[in-house]
Amino acid sequence: MTSGQYDDRVRTLSRRAEQTRASLDPDPPDEERAMEILREGFGPTVALYCEGRTGESWVRFSDAEFGRLEGAMNDWLDCYAACYGTELAGTYSVRAAAELLVDTHNVRDVAVIMTGVPDR
């Protein structure tokens, strides 16, 4: 199966992350907004990867598509961390996020494990 059916969805998620970043409250913390970002952006981005890699049809993302997908996920994590006044120092693997989601079944737990935000 080709990944073309996923490319539009990835581009949409990426655009939404950019728009979200511009609308973030400059006075953190904003835990409610952080959860909204996880539910509406980060979670769907990781779920899209899971969808492409599970079931009967395994999708082969091109390098460019995979880069956009992983970039979008990292943009959403940046938005999430910004809700706590934190800037992330690196990038994260969408595959690692998907594996954590399968293990935890909780998008917030995935974000906290991957980023350490919020620091408790």
Task: Produce a short descriptive summary.
The chain has 120 residues and is mainly alpha-helical.
Mean pLDDT: 91
Strand content: under 5%
Terminus-to-terminus distance = 43 Å
Order of helices and strands: HHHHH
Structural class of the helices, strands and pairings?
mainly alpha
Major β-sheet profile: none
Fraction of residues in H or I helices = 55-70%
Number of domain modules = 1
| Poorly predicted runs of 5 or more residues | none
Shape: globular
The total strand number stands at 0
Query: What integer value in Å does the Rg equal?
Result: 14 Å
Summed up, the helix count is: 5
Describe the structure using short key phrases.
mainly alpha; 120 residues; globular
Could you characterize the architecture of this molecule?
The chain is mainly alpha-helical and 120 residues long. Helices cover 68% and strands 0% of the residues. It has helices spanning 4-22, 31-53, 63-82, 94-104, 107-115. The chain is globular. The N and C termini lie far apart (43 Å).
What is this structure's SSE topology?
Elements: H1 4-22, H2 31-53, H3 63-82, H4 94-104, H5 107-115
